[in-house]
């Protein structure tokens, strides 16, 4: 009796959507028909997946004429959120650039770059915190702004002591390679709040969060 080959695992909707995003990225004219042909599924099925991806904000549809002529047709394109689903080497590029800055301009060059960025960001934060004189309100407002930048920040008080935490680091690989980034952040909070600020935990050192003690 012959050995039966294991059945191929069924294609999940999530896998189909992932393949569909790849097809849109690769296709010069990503119409529903072209995408259905490329993935080997029916047009009604592909339209359901396309609608799901539009609802998720990963695709948008445009009306274009093929080659600038002929009847208009609906063409699907990736949004910024759709592009973000593909792997990016931004962290590696950033580390490489900073490494070259350090090699070309000396050990203090990276810190000077970080300080320049810190001063610019400090101006942005200061304008958003203007009008908050109370420390609690100021830290809560600061945490809200940091969340907009992807830091997953939170301000809270414990036994009369204020803390600011960040559960996400937008550039963990860079922070690990160049601790000057974390030092610039600590200096930023000290200058912005005009109070003593100390760091008690750090994501890039393996902690679950960056935690700052304020005041």
Textual characterization of the structure:
The chain is α+β, with helices and mostly antiparallel strands and 215 residues long. It folds into two domains: 13-83, Orthogonal Bundle (Arc Repressor Mutant, subunit A), CATH 1.10.10.10; 90-214, Muramoyl-pentapeptide Carboxypeptidase, domain 2 (2-Layer Sandwich). It is built from nine helices and six strands; from the N terminus they run αααββααααββααββ. The chain has a four-stranded antiparallel sheet. A two-stranded antiparallel sheet has the order 1-2. α6 (109-129) packs parallel to α9. The longest helix is centred in the middle third of the chain and has 21 residues, at 109-129. It is elongated and about 65 Å long. Residues 1-10 have low confidence and may be disordered.
Write a brief caption for the model.
The protein has helices at residues 13-26, 32-39, 43-55, 80-83, 90-105, 109-129, 135-148, 172-177, 180-193; strands at 59-64, 73-78, 153-158, 161-166, 197-201, 210-214.
Task: Give the helix/strand layout.
Layout: H1 13-26, H2 32-39, H3 43-55, E1 59-64, E2 73-78, H4 80-83, H5 90-105, H6 109-129, H7 135-148, E3 153-158, E4 161-166, H8 172-177, H9 180-193, E5 197-201, E6 210-214
Antiparallel strand pairs: 1-2, 3-4, 4-6, 5-6
